[in-house]
Amino acid sequence: MSSDPTRGVVIGGGTAGALVAQVLARHVDEVVVVERDELPDGPHDRKGVPQGRHAHLLWSGGARIIESLYPGVLDELVAAGARSLGVQSDLVSLTAYGWQHRFDPSQFMVVGSRPLLDSVVRRRAAAVPGVTVVDGTEVTGFTGDADRVTGVTIRPVGGDEARELPADIVVDAGGRGSRTAARLQEFGIGHVPEDVVDSGLVYATRRFRPPPHLAAFPLVSVYADHRTGTPGRNGLVMPIEDGQWLVTLSGTRGDEPTSRDDDFLEFAAGLRHPVVGRLLAEAEPITPVHQSRSTKNRRLHYDRAESWPTGLVCLGDAVAALNPVYGHGMSSAARTVRALGNRLRRHGLAPEMFAGVQADVAAAQADPWMLAVSQDLAYPGCRIQLVDPALQDTAGRNEFVNLLGVAALRDPQVSAAYTEVASLSSPVTSLQEPGVIAALRSAQLRPALEEPPLSARERRMLAATVAR
Length: 468
Ligand SMILES: Cc1cc2nc3c(=O)[nH]c(=O)nc-3n(C[C@H](O)[C@H](O)[C@H](O)COP(=O)(O)OP(=O)(O)OC[C@H]3O[C@@H](n4cnc5c(N)ncnc54)[C@H](O)[C@@H]3O)c2cc1C
Known about the structure:
By secondary structure, the chain is an alpha+beta fold.
């Protein structure tokens, strides 16, 4: 006797959507990824992922999850022009606490334009047997009721004919603009508790072609010090494919970058160190400035909703969207996909799978959320609405983090422990393990660096620019 084929529907073909397609394909006969945009063939910007014009770094914690779903994908990314950088050896970084010594790598990050990262992963998703990507089509609602979501309604973009697409599991991977909370309210499920931490961060990004003598310069980041009581200003020069630099500047409420091309260099010159401004002095801008204000930390506590329908799962930014400065969003989305995969392995599509899935998703996002909001809380004018008690008492924790932050700059062992957490490779709680405390106590601090830790060759490259 044959049973009806099972179907999973994924809302959105961004980071989480492209990853969850693979996970679902192991548990249902057919996966349909519904994406509002017409998906380009290669690495091109698209409307549904406006953040894609800004610098996106993929930490090793997330990269490993993506590699586990699509073996070989990291090599494909590098072959397509992305770079895998050793952390800290390949970075020149001023953190809140000072310049970071360039210790031997203990973790890595993958850098490239977001459209490049997406296009490579998306190609792998589309090749999974049983997966169909329906683009140029939007999900307009859920079918079912408060007890069970039975599918979605979809409509071609610009068309007016909606049709139903039944599903055994619907996964919302629709990103920051997800409508799930409102749709649940239409089903009679009450308001979903929400945390918001909004430092008013504004991003401004422009692509440059570096002058030939700076083509091999490493990634440079200059971060604000959140402890000064003034707005924070950050800058990042990220080498990406085609020999370009993606330069992202950002500022919190009261010190935001504008979207005017003419203001870009002046804003860069006002960072805590002039190195970014110096690098840009002879670089050729190849795009206008793109601005983004969609940066606030917002976390929906679906795990605490008064009820949750069988058939529905919500992942990635649709649950928790983070301040992007720490580069955790894609890794956080990947962690939620892994959490769903683990649950599906245990329960299949049984009601127990859905009953606890949002608690597992919340657990997967707890660390990235904590890392994203902790410093933001200190910025002037930060708008805060918190239901999570874990964030309401940060004073003691901040003192410990400050100690660690200083030691991590100058001691390789502490740096490695800190980087494990920053790269989302180990939980935040690992910092309180005896080994880390011992390393902190016996730290052999290298001298504090007054200037960027450049090699002799890099210093010559920079001097050639300054001398002209
Ligand atoms: C300025 C900025 C910079 C960032 N920098 C970094 C970084 O350095 N590193 C990092 O890891 N993360 C970064 N992020 C975060 C990262 O972009 C997100 O965390 C990540 O894209 C989340 O993936 P997602 O799949 O949840 O959503 P998305 O990747 O945004 O995908 C959502 C998809 O759903 C589609 N969609 C939405 N609604 C519908 C619908 N109704 N029907 C059909 N399709 C729909 C959209 O078109 C889109 O394709 C940054 C974010 C911003 C705003």
